[in-house]
Amino acid sequence: MDADKPVCGREPDSQYVELAVEVFAMLADATRVRIVLALRDGEMSVNSLADIVDKSPAAVSQHLAKLRLGRFVTTRQEGTRVFYRLENEHVSKLVTDAIFQAEHSIGGTPRHHSAADHSN
């Protein structure tokens, strides 16, 4: 049989397609996308993230709980403060690529294609 054949996750019949849809659903919220973008450079507290995304700490905490449940973020506790960071580089790449695709949708030459912007 095919028991020894490795399964590629990028094939149309992949067992991961439904999980990929759940990943997109988790990111189908502007606040969560902003949180991911804010966490690209390292860990942050809820209050710092709330300031950056212009939401209340309570709202940011709820979004972070969902992102943590989906294994997008992980935590580190220091005393009574909790710091959040991205679980791995894939969520950052996924959000960055979505932003790049959004830039393409408005026409013209997207910023990420300009010679002056080499940051991914």
CATH level-two architecture: Orthogonal Bundle
- Gross geometry: globular
How many individual helices? 5
Strand-residue proportion: 5-15%
Number of individual domains: 1
Q: Give the low-confidence spans.
A: none
Q: What is the class in the CATH system? A: Mainly Alpha
**Helical residues, percent:** 40-55%
Largest sheet composition: 3 strands, antiparallel
- The rounded Rg comes to 17 Å
Q: What distance lies between the first and last C-alpha atoms, to the nearest angstrom?
A: 43 Å
Structural class: mainly alpha
Q: What's the pLDDT, averaged over the residues?
A: 89
Report what the structure shows.
The protein has 120 residues and is mainly alpha-helical. The chain has a single domain, classed as Winged helix-like DNA-binding domain superfamily/Winged helix DNA-binding domain (Arc Repressor Mutant, subunit A). The chain contains five helices and three strands, in the order ααβααββα. Strands 1-3-2 form a three-stranded antiparallel sheet. Helix 3 packs across helix 4 (57-69). It starts with 16 loop residues before the first helix and ends in a 15-residue tail after the last helix. The relative contact order is 0.12. The mean pLDDT is 89.
